[in-house]
């Protein structure tokens, strides 16, 4: 198991305090810059490893950044704290985005990112809970994260714990029937401590979601299973923050975050081939320059 980086964890705490005290537009800019730093880190990881899922990493990073740097009750130096909030990255193929975020928060040293997807590395192509602090469950086979998150939410209720459970899903992943069984159970049990976040970039491996197996009207589907639904711009950090922290009703919440695959890099945006294409050195340089603006 990797160990925490105390210096990075202290910086994460300072960031969160400054963020909480900041005016809204400054808060937005802080989160934007933090997310783009993780995008730059992710590009370096994928370039070094020669593999990864860069398009989905770019689309989900604003969601992960907002959660870890503004919302989740977690402690990087106590990753097994019993009353911590839980984050399940169901779309486990975007592990690179999660690792970049966890390292920035101090869950482990940033130098470990240099081993991404290398033989014997803890940082596999999909996250592993017995190797990486901050990973709540192993994911990769799509359709598994929401069922596990439902179980976590039920467990929190049985423990009479205030911990919240968040699960980040890919939209193409919602074509897996196991998600809808879990959604039905969560709605039936009125799991108000559960929030599902859909990274709605409308692309999956090889095609658009609506050409593969149409999901729309996605909001109505979730409502029909007993969920409250909020639809936001998935790259608007303040809109995400509001959706994640708003008072809950008596049903679980689904946040449909409309995103762009490859977000932040113009030649990757909304292009299906960047699902797991590896950028060249020249493309990396161009992407890093864009993200630094």
Give unreliable regions as ranges.
Answer: none
Proportion of residues in helical segments: 40-55%
Mean pLDDT: 97
Taking Cα atoms only, what radius of gyration do you get, to the nearest Å? 18 Å
Distance between the termini: 36 Å
State the strand order across the main sheet. 1-2-3-7-6
Instruction: Give the overall shape.
Output: globular
Q: How would a crystallographer describe the biggest sheet? A: 5 strands, parallel
Quantity of strands, as a count: 7
SS field, number of helical segments? 10
Structural class by sheet pairing and helices:
alpha/beta
Question: Which strand-content bin applies to the residues?
Answer: 5-15%
Order of helices and strands: HHHEHHEHEEEHHEHEH
Tell me what you see in this structure:
- There is one protein chain.
- It is built from ten helices and seven strands.
- The protein is an alpha/beta fold and 293 residues long.
- The chain starts with 5 loop residues before the first helix and ends with a helix.
């Amino acid at each position: 198991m990797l160990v925490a980086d105390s210096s990075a964890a202290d910086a994460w705490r300072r960031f969160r305090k400054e963020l909480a005290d900041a005016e809204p537009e400054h808060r937005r800019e802080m989160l934007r810059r933090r997310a783009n730093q993780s995008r730059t880190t992710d590009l370096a990881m994928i370039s070094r490893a020669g593999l990864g899922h860069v398009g989905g990493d770019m689309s989900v990073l604003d969601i992960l950044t907002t959660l870890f740097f503004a919302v989740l009750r977690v402690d990087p130096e106590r990753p097994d704290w019993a009353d911590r909030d839980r984050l399940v990255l169901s779309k486990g193929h975007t592990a690179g985005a999660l690792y970049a975020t966890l390292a920035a928060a101090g869950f482990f040293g940033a130098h470990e990112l240099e081993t991404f997807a290398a033989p014997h590395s803890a940082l596999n192509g999909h996250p592993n809970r017995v190797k990486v602090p901050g990973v709540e469950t192993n994911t990769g086979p799509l359709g598994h994260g929401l069922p596990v998150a439902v179980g976590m939410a039920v467990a929190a209720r049985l423990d009479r714990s205030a911990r919240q459970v968040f699960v980040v899903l890919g939209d193409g992943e919602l074509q897996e029937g196991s998600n809808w069984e879990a959604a039905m159970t969560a709605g039936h049990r009125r799991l108000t401590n559960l929030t599902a976040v859909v990274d709605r970039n409308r692309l999956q491996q090889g095609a658009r979601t609506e050409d593969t197996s149409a999901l729309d009207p996605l909001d109505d589907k979730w409502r029909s299973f007993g969920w409250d639904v909020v639809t936001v711009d998935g790259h608007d950090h303040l809109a995400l923050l509001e959706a994640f922290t708003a008072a809950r009703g008596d049903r679980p919440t689904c946040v449909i975050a409309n995103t762009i695959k490859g977000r932040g890099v113009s030649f990757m945006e909304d292009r299906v081939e960047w699902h797991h294409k590896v950028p060249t050195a020249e493309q990396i340089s161009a992407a890093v320059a864009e993200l630094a603006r």
